[in-house]
Specification:
Elements (H helix, E strand, L loop, with lengths): L2 E4 L2 E2 L5 H11 L4 E9 L4 E9 H18 L15 E8 L5 H16 L5 E5 L10 H5 L2 H11 L18 E5 L4 E7 L4 H11 L9 E8 L4 E8 L7 H14 L4 E7 L11 H5 L15
Parallel strand pairs: 5-7, 6-7
Antiparallel strand pairs: 1-4, 1-5, 2-4, 2-5, 3-4, 8-10, 8-11, 9-10
Helix pairs in contact: 1-2, 2-3, 6-7
């Protein structure tokens, strides 16, 4: 039995009753819910699940059924890009050499979600073709544009119907290595400043390897944020990201005042100075993956 992590994201971060119902649906025998992180501005909840592949497939399928019953993507609003009620479901191996098991679980999950009448797009190591491996390529243009691309045959789903589910939209299912979701909070309301920093911080803009970033405004906090995914922590540390963001922010006379970790991270990605070095006051032991293993 190969245990792995699965990190499904649902497009709801405000309605506590909906979040609790979805988490309850994913909580089943053989699966541990390690973390639940919700954000009202992103209007998104990230679950971290641990279990064997087949158990995780059952849990994600139950989660999807609960989400499409309670979340209508046609009425959804939030600063984070989205395609579906169950938006993404990446399977993540815990050890080297276990990626084939994660790919197998992702593809089984895709079959199960298609049976719920959901179009499924495979990404990462589970992609049907290397040209379709990037999650950003599936999301390009948002849900309405994706619906047009699927209907025309330009970007067909890997499983399920060629039109979005009426309430559930489209789901992306993948297999990938560890990814650290890491937000940087700025001492400004100016979202243009956050967007400028994000553009230079991400790898495609000349920033550190394996960094993806978006500049956002958090209405509930009255604060701009740079939302970061670090996809290769062996090449780029979280401290590298903070230091580079500091340099970029200083050009505009602003500062990175605080950071936050979304979900879990392996212990090895934290610097010697720990939470203080990252300006990460909310870090707890329960956010360290090894605490649960």
């Amino acid at each position: 039995m190969v245990r792995m992590e699965c990190v499904p994201n649902i497009s709801e971060g405000r309605r506590r009753d909906v979040i609790e119902a979805c988490v309850a649906a994913a909580s089943m025998r053989g699966v541990r819910v390690l973390d639940v992180s919700s954000d009202p501005d992103h209007n998104r909840t990230v679950l971290t699940l641990l279990g064997a592949g087949d158990d995780l497939v059952r849990a994600v399928t139950a989660l999807a059924a609960a989400a499409i019953d309670r979340i209508d993507v046609g009425a959804h609003s939030g600063v984070h890009p989205f395609l579906g009620a169950l938006d993404v479901a990446p399977f993540v191996p815990l050890e080297a050499g276990q990626m084939p098991a994660a790919v197998d679980a992702a593809r089984k999950c895709a079959d199960a979600l298609a049976a719920l009448d959901l179009p499924v797009l495979l990404y990462g190591e589970a992609a049907s073709d290397p040209s379709r491996s990037a999650l950003a390529d599936h999301r390009r243009g948002g849900l309405s544009r994706l619906a047009e691309r699927m209907a025309s045959g330009q970007w067909p789903p890997d499983r399920g119907p060629s039109r979005p589910h009426p309430t559930g939209g489209v789901v992306c299912v993948g297999a990938r290595p560890f990814l650290v979701a890491f937000n940087l909070l700025l001492d400004t309301r100016e979202v243009a400043v956050a967007k400028r920093i994000a553009a230079s911080l991400r790898e495609s803009g000349g920033g550190p390897p394996g960094v993806r970033a978006l500049g956002l405004f958090l209405e509930s906090r009255g604060q701009a944020q740079v939302s970061v995914n670090v996809t290769d922590c062996d090449r780029t540390s979280l401290l590298d990201v903070v230091n580079r963001a500091d340099e970029l922010a200083a050009v505009g006379g602003v500062r990175v005042v605080e950071t936050e970790l979304i979900g879990l991270a392996p212990r090895r990605v934290l610097p010697a100075g720990g939470a203080a070095a990252l300006r990460l006051p909310g870090l707890s032991k329960t956010q360290i993956l090894e605490t649960h293993l």
